[in-house]
Design the sequence.
């Protein structure tokens, strides 16, 4: 899942399509317009986004409506949050090491000198 | 930039390498160990991560040390936050539409009937 979501977002057109869909549902035709792309070209991008759990498509007569799915975004956000947590744990540990280096064995006075 | 950062994270080995580096610096040899991969194979992944602004490498004698760079993660987080903001603006708008549908022109009584 994460493989395909991150891959889907590695293309600027697909990111722009998602940004448009974050504002609300759109048809394939409406999505194609601002990009000066053919509908088949847009459809290929939509297929990648759908496979990554980032959008869903539904037919309504001859029109296909696209809508953003939260699943894919949630997965990426969770992964990035996990990274941030690991990073902050690492910084806390470094802070601890630095603090213990500043007061080696005895308690220093306020100017940092050993008593 | 976003193209290469999102692309870099579309590979599970590269995500695992980043997760390892979030815990602190490591040499290429240390990174290769848990993956049962050759050092050249790991080096190719590291090159992709470096190109995406996700890690930096520095030589120390014959060893190469790798360290996480925040630049790439920050860029992705900013993009995802922008998406979340657009989504919540969209929901606020929908809430407004729904609210106006629930009280059309006159104020309905508690059972929703028009007075």
Sequence:
């Amino acid at each position: 899942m994460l493989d395909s979501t991150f891959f889907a977002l590695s293309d600027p057109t697909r990111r722009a399509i998602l940004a448009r869909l974050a504002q609300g549902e759109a048809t394939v035709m409406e999505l194609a317009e601002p990009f000066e792309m053919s509908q088949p070209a847009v459809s290929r991008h939509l297929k990648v986004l759908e496979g990554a759990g980032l959008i869903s498509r539904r037919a309504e007569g001859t029109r296909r409506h696209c809508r953003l799915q939260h699943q894919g975004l949630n997965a990426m956000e969770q992964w990035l949050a996990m990274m941030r947590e690991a990073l902050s744990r690492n910084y806390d540990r470094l802070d601890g090491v630095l603090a213990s280096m500043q007061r080696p064995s005895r308690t220093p006075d306020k100017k940092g000198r050993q008593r």
